[in-house]
User: Fold this.
Amino acid sequence: GMKSLDVEQIKEILRIEIRKQILHAHQVDLGTNKWSELGVEQSLDSIKQKDSNLRKILENDLNFYRQQVDLKLKSILESLDIEVKKESVAYRGLRNNFIELYLLRHQWMRDLVSNSGKTDDEFRRDAEMKLGINLFPDVSWLPQDTPKTSVSPPIEQDQIQTPEVPQLKKQSRQTISECSELFSDRKVLEDITPKEIQVYGQNINDFIEVVGDIPISQVTKSEVSEFVTIQSKLPPNRKKSPQYRELTISELIEKKGIEPQTPQNINKRLTKLSVFGNWCVRQGYISENPFKDMKLTVKKKRTGRIPFSAQEIRRILAPETYLKWTSDFKHRHNPSHNVGIFPTHPSGAKNQMCYYWIFLLGIHSGLRTNEMCQLRLSDLKKQKGIWFMHVEDDEETKVKTINSIRKVPVHPQLMKLGFIDYIGNLKRKKKDRVFWELTKSRDGYTKQVSRHYNERFLPAIK
Assistant:
């Protein structure tokens, strides 16, 4: 059965929470412009306002705030297999201690932003004195007014015996970021694309932003649950949005009118983090993957990509429209077009033939955009009188899955339109790739074609 909440478990939960709140205070400090007096003043004003808001809530609606703390404690206790008894003295005391820590962290923020010189060990002492509990026996506290000249050499972080998280079989001193760095190195060796490695790294960094760069062995389902709760209140792509990227997590949570990211998006993040967690298990850093089975339950909605209707295809392929936006496309910023001159490779519009063939190739072959954009002349081969496109996976070309390695016949309609003649002309010009004009970016060769169709062509005919 589930365990009852005892004194040692309360101490361990409080130690972890104190660590998180100290890290949160450091995040606020690091987000302050210390090179500007106004920046420091604004940060201190913001901290003062947050402290005032919390005290007003506690004064006017204590039950509401207790319910918010109850939600957090519920996820923590359940992850440790501890029974939640809200009416017990132990639980109510723990809840009050959490509220005291939320008030205390505002003072820690002020101390850091104002460069008071206080250390994390002194913040831990503040917490012990405020809560009246001996939580850090390995740290010898000195009275607050002890002259600094008499202080013995500071205790190194790795000398402090961190209490073992109950559900882990072994400890690892590797921090999350250290594990992430090695994980990325291994993914490079596994030939994972730079884009995908960056996505893994961003999700891990987002997790660190919430729980801190703690030893990987201290990550439990409690931290993952907190991450999910925080993510459910944040907008999607906040790091890319000019509207949100300068705001801290706390500021975003307090900001009204934000449309949060979907549960599906949060689950995508958890999928990436779970891959990382499984890797950490295989390396022996942790005994269990804390991200496993943490996805939100979501009803599947039929909101996939909607295919073009027959009427839309006819409108797109109408000669006067299709040619205007593909082989005859002229960039409005190219001055040579204003005098009727059509250069071989017009400025900003050198991809006309790519635009012309790729859409036709897609509807007649079913190839993915990047598979078409990366085609080499050597990928087109004639076997027993039939032309095929060989979609392969090697150092120059990439496919999405192992099942994507295949050969696709060239459609008769493409033959009639002159696709094979076009290939022959490129061979005579000693080109290597079918769409040689396209340049490779982080996402492959698709960027210019996708932008042209999605931002120019298709919006213009709707």
